[in-house]
């Protein structure tokens, strides 16, 4: 037998709910920033979202460890440039960078691999002018990291020396006094296929490029073999502004390399890497007053300092190339030994170029190379308009529900409106705290989930109230119908909300991007709906059912007048039928 409404003690439930609300808003106002505003996504406040897709030399799936390491390095870069409110999260095999406000341009350079290495220049040749690649050619659009690579200089200067900082001579197309003679473009044309993979179509573009442009024969002591390999590699390399390098961030440091430099004006044949960028201790962008240009000053670690000093001592008169993501940033001629662990990268850098380069070198290279698969920028004006549209849609939905409840349920409808308002307070506080604690951002998809959740919450009230009508239709009073109706309605409410939460959970697990925001808010609101129904709606209805007020106890004011009249008519019919049967007997 269902318990009576008097045994419920609704005051305790309402007091406990009030305590929960007070505790949540105390956390909202007295923790973190103290601002009672949820964290908004870029589609609501404006900003930039860059999605970086990892690529591996063999075309396989990157490991989770390498993705996490890449995310941490990018996050460190973000902190280094001081972009407030930026988020770096993993989304499957993608790294998603979200920058709020008008600082989005800096995010597009954060995914640069920044694999720096120092290589000896074997030879170089001017790059013959080439027409822009036609659509459908193997070349692909540049990755997001490529715009941030600083331009190379046609006349770089040598790194400063601890003993006097000798200046370099211009290398022009790559040659300089004391440097190895340049290889002419080609006197004996050779087909690029001579160094190409032997028909292995299963190889990825990265592997094919490694076979040709990192052929060990490029640095062979056999002049004929080296010349043939160099001609094939140089012929296979296209240096043009809108042509991406498949080896970007994927070159093998222990092998020679053929790369572009000097704003794609020169092709370089380089020896194996003799000093990795991981030996850099610090990097800083500075303005050189004497040269009138921005430079990047480097300080090596102990081992790197010794390696650099030994190399410059043994290779005076030759060129050393600073290679960033397979692009020769600078190739100065060494005029003397550079000791002390300090050096300098020069080039035609703007202030932004120099600072970006120093930032990515300071925090290390990424373990993976990335392509920018998506870059979305939303203006602050459009974000504000989207937020207003979302709020307007929610307000219209609430008003429609309010009007329906008032017309159909009357006083019970007012209880519904009150329950929805309290549910809104609970949801809002939860969104603010989740934004602080786990970085959850509310976006348009999340607002859509909240709007749909209004219907789910109202549906719980409808189930409860319709069950009350069924009990009254069977001849019970409103007071006795409340505990019986609740005992039966709550099973349906639990089943309904359980199905909604399960669907939201599955959607959140299998979905990516904005759809996850929709699923999250839908699932969260479904859980909070149960809290409100159990701790607010049912106790309020129970209080009304036990009230001695003539207004509150009047079934017509509760929207139950028609049902009670139908129950009275049924009782009268049953009484009349019973009397007729008695007379016939």
From TrEMBL:
Residues 129-141 have a biased composition (Pro residues). It holds the Pfam family SecD_1st. The keyword Protein transport applies. Its main location: membrane. It comes from the Bacteria. Residues 264-367 form the SecDF P1 head subdomain domain. Gene3D superfamilies: 3.30.1360.200, 3.30.70.3220, Multidrug efflux transporter AcrB transmembrane domain. InterPro entries: SecD, SecD/SecF_arch_bac, SecD/SecF_CS, SecD_1st, SecD_SecF_C, SecD_SecF_C_bact, SecDF_P1_head. Residues 125-205 are annotated as: Disordered. Residues 142-170, 188-199 have a biased composition (Low complexity). The chain crosses the membrane at residues 12-30, 387-407, 414-438, 444-465, 493-511. Residues 372-544 form the Protein export membrane protein SecD/SecF C-terminal domain. It is found in: Cell membrane. Residues 67-121 form the Protein translocase subunit SecDF P1 domain. Keywords: Cell membrane, Membrane, Protein transport, Translocation, Transmembrane, Transmembrane helix, Transport. It is a multi-pass membrane protein. Belongs to the SecD/SecF family. SecD subfamily. HAMAP family: SecD_B. Part of the Sec protein translocase complex. Interacts with the SecYEG preprotein conducting channel. SecDF uses the proton motive force (PMF) to complete protein translocation after the ATP-dependent function of SecA. Forms a complex with SecF. Part of the essential Sec protein translocation apparatus which comprises SecA, SecYEG and auxiliary proteins SecDF. Other proteins may also be involved. This is Protein translocase subunit SecD. The lineage of its organism: Bacteria, Bacillati, Actinomycetota, Actinomycetes, Pseudonocardiales. The gene is secD.
């Amino acid at each position: 037998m269902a318990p009576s409404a008097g045994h419920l003690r609704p005051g305790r439930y309402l007091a406990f709910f009030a305590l929960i609300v007070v505790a949540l808003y105390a956390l909202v106002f007295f923790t973190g920033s103290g601002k009672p505003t949820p964290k908004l996504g870029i589609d609501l406040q404006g900003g930039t979202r860059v999605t970086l897709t990892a690529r591996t030399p063999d075309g396989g799936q990157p490991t989770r460890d390498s993705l996490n390491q890449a995310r941490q390095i990018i996050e460190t870069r973000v902190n280094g440039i001081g972009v407030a409110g930026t988020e770096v999260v993993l989304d499957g095999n993608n790294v998603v960078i979200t920058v709020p406000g008008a600082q989005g341009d800096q995010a597009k350079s954060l995914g640069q691999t920044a694999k720096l290495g120092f290589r000896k220049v074997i030879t170089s040749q001017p790059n013959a002018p080439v027409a822009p690649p036609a659509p459908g050619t193997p070349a692909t659009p540049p990755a997001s990291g490529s715009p941030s690579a600083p331009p190379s200089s046609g006349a770089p200067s040598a790194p400063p020396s601890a003993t006097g900082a000798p200046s370099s001579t211009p290398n022009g197309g790559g040659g300089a006094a004391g440097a190895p003679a340049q290889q002419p473009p080609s006197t004996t044309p050779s087909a690029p296929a001579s160094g190409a993979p032997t028909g292995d179509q299963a190889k990825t573009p990265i592997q094919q490029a490694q076979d040709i442009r990192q052929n060990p024969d490029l640095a062979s002591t056999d002049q004929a073999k080296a010349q043939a390999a160099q001609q094939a590699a140089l012929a296979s390399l296209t240096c043009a502004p809108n042509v991406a390098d498949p080896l970007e961030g994927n070159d093998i440091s222990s092998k020679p390399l053929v790369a572009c430099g000097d704003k794609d004006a020169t092709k370089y044949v380089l020896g194996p890497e003799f000093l990795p960028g991981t030996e850099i201790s610090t990097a800083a962008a500075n303005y050189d007053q004497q040269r009138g240009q921005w430079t990047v000053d480097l300080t090596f670690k102990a081992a790197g300092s010794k390696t650099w000093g030994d190399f410059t001592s043994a290779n005076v008169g030759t060129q050393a190339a600073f290679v960033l993501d397979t692009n020769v940033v600078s190739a100065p001629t060494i005029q003397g030994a550079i000791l002390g662990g300090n050096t300098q990268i020069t080039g035609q850098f703007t202030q932004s170029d120099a600072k970006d380069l120093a930032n990515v070198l300071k925090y290390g290279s990424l373990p993976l190379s990335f392509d920018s698969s998506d870059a979305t920028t939303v203006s602050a004006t459009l974000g504000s308009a989207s937020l207003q549209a979302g709020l307007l849609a929610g307000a219209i939905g609430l008003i429609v529900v309010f009007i329906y409840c008032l017309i159909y349920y009357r006083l019970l409808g007012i209880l519904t409106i009150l329950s929805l308002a309290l549910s809104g307070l609970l949801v809002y506080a939860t969104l603010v705290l989740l934004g602080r604690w786990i970085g959850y951002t509310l976006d348009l998809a999340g607002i859509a989930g909240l709007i749909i959740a209004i219907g789910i919450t109202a549906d719980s009230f409808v189930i409860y109230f319709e069950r009350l009508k069924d009990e009254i239709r069977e001849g019970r009073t409103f007071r006795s119908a409340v505990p019986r109706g609740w005992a039966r309605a709550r099973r349906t409410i639990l089943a309904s909300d359980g199905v909604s939460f399960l669907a939201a959970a599955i959607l959140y697990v299998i979905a990516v991007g904005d759809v996850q925001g929709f699923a999250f808010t839908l699932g969260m609101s479904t859980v909070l709906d149960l809290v409100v129904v159990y701790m607010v709606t049912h106790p309020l209805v129970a209080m009304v059912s036990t009230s001695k007020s003539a207004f509150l106890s009047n079934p017509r004011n509760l929207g139950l007048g028609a049902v009670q009249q139908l129950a009275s008519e049924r009782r009268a019919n049953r009484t009349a039928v019973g009397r007729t049967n008695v007379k016939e007997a």
